[in-house]
Amino acid sequence: MGEERSAGQMNGNGEKQRLAGIKKGLVSTGIIAIILNFLKPALIFLKPLAALLKLSKFGGTLVSMVVTVAVYAMIWGWWFALGFVILIFIHENGHMYAAKMIGLPVSRPVFIPFVGAFIAMKEIPKNAKEEALIGYGGPLAGTAGALACAAIYSLTGNPFWLALSYLGFFLNLFNLMPLGFLDGGRVASAVSCWLWIPGAVILTYMAVKYTNPVIFFVLILGVIQAYKVFKHRNEPEMINYYQIEPEFRFKMGLAYLFLLSVTGVGMGYSHSLLGNVQI
User: Fold this and answer.
1) Beta-bridge mates of residue 111
2) Computed over its alpha carbons, how large is the radius of gyration of the chain?
3) What is the reported pLDDT for 278?
4) Above 90 in pLDDT, residue 234?
5) Cβ within 8 Å of residue 244, ≥6 positions away
6) What is the pLDDT of residues 71-125, one digit of tens each?
């Protein structure tokens, strides 16, 4: 009898465990089903994007643009977010066009929300002259885009275009800061790497004043790069890389000052007008 009870109890316990396992499985399956049902719109949306990535050589650019516009739209609304991303796209295409003119293969722009966009160089520039020309192409095209927005505002009086022009001037002026991997750092290196010192001072002031983590990040990377360059500046490879004819240094210096002036004046003027209009 005792053995029969024990066997019965064991069978009962086994049945309970089996039922408990089935219940857990059903709960897990239900949770997964709920999650999948919740994510279904996103999954449906991602399918054509995945196909686009496979079929189109512009897929990465388009997908990253769509995602970036969607993120910025939560802050500024769809139209302003779209205009802002287009300005960044114009800037990056300036880099891409300059690289192609030199003969360096580069990737198409890829966008990252709150960081900007980038193009990857498939070959390293042969010298600081080529690097400066590629760096200059971005702010040149970006400033032209900001000027176009300012021109549209002058014709229409629509403050939407004034706000876009201000943002365009500001972003390109910031990129022209003479330090490290920023466009201005690449341009300044063809004039004199000593220009990185005032660039570091200005960025330090901005980082402390605005306590912006992105500025701190840019500053730290720029200082690290500047340290490496100055540390190895007497090595033959580094000397050859920064060996540039004086005529080019002079022309690049003038072109740099010109773009700094246009972006600085454009940003200041558009900012003063923004104070008198309602957006």
Assistant:
1) 117
2) 28
3) 60
4) no
5) 127, 128, 129, 190
6) 888 888 899 999 999 999 999 999 999 999 999 888 788 887 877 777 777 788 8
Return the pLDDT at 142: 96
Least Cα distance to 140 among 206, 194, 107, 186 occurs for 186
Say what the pLDDT of residue 105 is: 86
3-state secondary structure labels for all residues of 115-170? CEEECCECCCCCCHHHHHHHHHHHHHHHHHHHHHHHHHHHHHCCHHHHHHHHHHHH
Between CA 110 and CA 106 the distance in angstroms is 12
Residue 242 CB contacts under 8 Å (≥ 6 apart), including other chains: 127, 128, 189, 193, 233
Which amino acid, 6?
A: S
Structure tokens at 193: 């790497």
Tell me the pTM.
Answer: 0.75
Amino acid at 90: I
Cα distances (angstroms) measured from residue 211 to each of 165, 203, 268: 25, 11, 22
